[in-house]
Please model this.
Amino acid sequence: IKKDEQLKYLEGESLKCLKAIKKISPSSVDVFIILLKSITVFHQYMLALGLTPTILSLANGITDLTINVSESYRGLKDLLKQYPDLYAGIASKSLLTALIANRICKSMGWDSITTKKKLAMSAILQDYNLPDESLAHINYISDPRIQNYSDTRVKEFYGHPILAAEVARQFTMFPDIDYIIEHHHELPQKKGFPAQVPLTKLTPICGVFNTAQHLAAGLDGKKVNVALVQKIMRSMNRDFNAGNFKEPYLIIKKQFSSK
Model:
């Protein structure tokens, strides 16, 4: 497809998504599908054409609706029960991250709409430049699944937080998301990547976001139930029960402590 034809197609799809976003109710059974399609179109647009007024409008529409959906449920457990398990990959993990992060945010008493939009926008941009959908499910550089990819793909995976953060700086109406995205795979004890930063560099909003994206990576494409969340939380205990990660981690653990 020629550049002008691609632009026309993506502009058209973006406007369709915006129209659907404005019409859909946060409690509709179709809202997750609308958001997944919109995030997919957003990613395609960003990869092909970069930042434009249309993509800014779509970003605002997606983040606002995601926040409204998150807050339309009594709690994270009820929300995840309704999340479709037929989808898996970058768009789905992005949406799950945004929904989980905003539920944690609410449980922590953070009421700022700016903070909520930062978390949602960071979720949408965090993995948009990954070269393979399945890489969105990997959180550790020691993950044995890394061996399934070429050296080039692995290098791109390790560097994707930095590249995504550079693009995030263009979204000036969402302050600080570049910092969140650049550090979204960092962990306490310098176990993360790409920079193995000290715990003091990982702010409270990093703690919320990293906890959310780690859980989302484990849930994406699976039927969510209490046992699955508990299993993932047990695997996170050693690395997340510290610093600014501790409160978000314990919030989720408590909400799924029993059936």
